[in-house]
Each structure stands twice: as C-alpha cells, then as structure tokens.
Design brief:
This protein has 262 residues and is mostly beta strands. It contains one helix and 16 strands. The chain has one helix at 3-17, and strands at residues 30-38, 41-50, 53-60, 63-70, 75-80, 85-90, 118-128, 131-142, 145-154, 160-165, 170-181, 184-195, 198-208, 213-219, 223-232, 247-248. A 16-stranded mixed beta sheet has the order 7-8-9-10-11-12-13-14-15-1-2-3-4-5-6-16, covered by helices on one side. Strand 11 and strand 12 (184-195) form a beta hairpin.
C-alpha cells in the first residue's frame, strides 16, 4: 500500500492509533519511560505529560533530542541539550482543541474540524463492531487531489471505527476486551487496514482510558512501542520550560511543524 494513498484516511484515525505521540493531554498527568523495539534493536526514552503539556525525551542518531508541546501557549519546542540550543514552532500540538487528532466529545463534533481541505456531511447513526457510531461522508483534498470517504465515528469516544475510501481502501477498529498491562486496566483494540491488490495489515494497541492514550502498540514486522514504569502525578513545571543558557536557532523551513516522536 503506497503511503501517499493512505494520507487522508490515516489522518482520520491517527488521533487514536498513533499511540503516545498523540496523547490527548486532558487525561491524568503522569511520567513514564518509553521503549520501542524491532528486529533491528531497542531504544528507550522518557515521557512527561501535564495539563495541556507534554515532554518527550529521545535519542536521534546518537544525539539526545527533547520535544516540548505546550497547547496553552500554542507552541512546540525542540531542544538539543548537547548544543544548548532550541527551535520553536507556533501552532497547536496533538491533543489541542484545534487539532484534528482531538477525539470528538461524545462524537458530536465535526470530524473535519481543523483538518485542512476537508468537508464533512453527517449521514446518520449505525452500529459498527457492536458500538454506536455516527456515519459521516467526508471529502479530503490534498495536493490538488480529492478523495471521498465514509467514516463511522464512535458516538462515545469520537474515534473512527471504520473508514472506507473511494479508492477501495478500508480501515476497521475493533475493541477486543479489557486486559491488565503493567498493573493497569486497559482496553485492547485491533486496527486492520486493506487496499485493492494488497494484503491486509493489522496492528494492536492497549489503550488506557485514564491516561487517554495507548501504553502499548504492536505493529507488523515485530515493531513494538510501549510505556513502562508509569507514575501518575503532575511532572515538575521546569520540565516544560527552556533551560537557562539555551540559544534559539532558526527552523530548517519557515512554518515547518516538527514531527512528534519518542
């Protein structure tokens, strides 16, 4: 499946199925260690989530990188501790009310809100995978190309349970049950995606309804992302500020938004 084909559809489910990077930021504040593993190796980092703020510490190419998202200030920072420098980006981050990744409250918000080039029309209410969903007809235009799709948004969570595109792509999200992961009661969800003449792909995540994000994800090819040693409580305020002595540097491209990673 070509990545360019899936961009519009993936935007609709990224708020739920992109894991820690898409934290709601309205759940319980916490701190945790991050770990991701693949057949090529394992890497780790740290994550701190406060009220409308998030800090992710990671290693990129042997260099420590820190990302800070502050939705109250509508700003994102990238810190490079070894260089005592930082970059600043304006705009809402994941989990802000202006972001298309924000789950719709009670499924009543327009799922196109904040999604550039998108239009939505509600068609009704249906049952999908045993859950009540609002059915939406959606149109997304990117790079001069318009894709039509239908999406069924969970009426309780505001997350897409099914998305079908005019090009024959389909994504389904199904809750499998409740499990205990790391001492926390979480929901196990499976997402399957398919496209014409392509094998179906499946991924699984364990979603923590208290933290409002996935604490574990498993992807095809043996790739796993997870949070471990989770500690609830508001992190120190200093973690979301620019340290003294750091110099501001110009981003590589004007207006470019930083990717959220871990």
């Amino acid at each position: 499946m070509r990545s360019s084909q899936l961009v519009p559809a993936m935007l609709l489910v990224s708020g739920f199925m992109s894991g820690v990077a898409s934290a709601d930021l309205s759940g319980v504040p916490f701190s945790a260690e991050t770990r991701q593993s693949s057949p090529q190796g394992t890497s780790s980092g740290k994550m701190y989530v406060g009220k409308n703020r998030m800090r992710i510490e990671m290693d990129q190419g042997g260099q420590q990188v820190v990302q800070i998202i502050d939705n109250d200030k509508q700003a994102q920072l990238i810190l490079y501790p070894s260089q005592h420098s930082y970059m600043e980006f304006q705009g809402p981050g994941p989990g802000s009310s202006a972001s298309p990744q924000t789950p719709a409250s009670g499924g009543k918000l327009d799922p196109c809100a904040g999604l550039q080039g998108a239009r939505c029309n509600k068609l009704g209410v249906e049952s999908i995978n045993g859950r009540t969903a609002d059915k939406w007809q959606m149109s997304v235009t990117q790079q001069g190309k318009t894709m039509q799709m239908t999406s069924w948004i969970d009426a309780d969570r505001g997350i897409p349970l099914r998305t079908e595109t005019s090009e024959g792509q389909r994504m389904d999200l199904r809750m499998l049950g409740i499990e205990n992961v790391g001492g926390r009661q979480v929901e196990k969800w499976e997402m399957s995606s398919s496209a014409p003449n392509q094998p179906a792909q499946r991924s699984t995540q364990w979603y923590d309804p208290v933290l409002k994000l996935a604490i574990r994800e498993e992807f095809p090819g043996g790739f796993v992302r997870e949070l471990i040693n989770i500690r609830e409580g508001e992190p120190p305020s200093s973690l979301f500020s620019i340290p003294a002595g750091y110099q501001k540097v110009t981003p590589p491209a004007s207006g470019q938004q930083p990717p959220v990673g871990r």
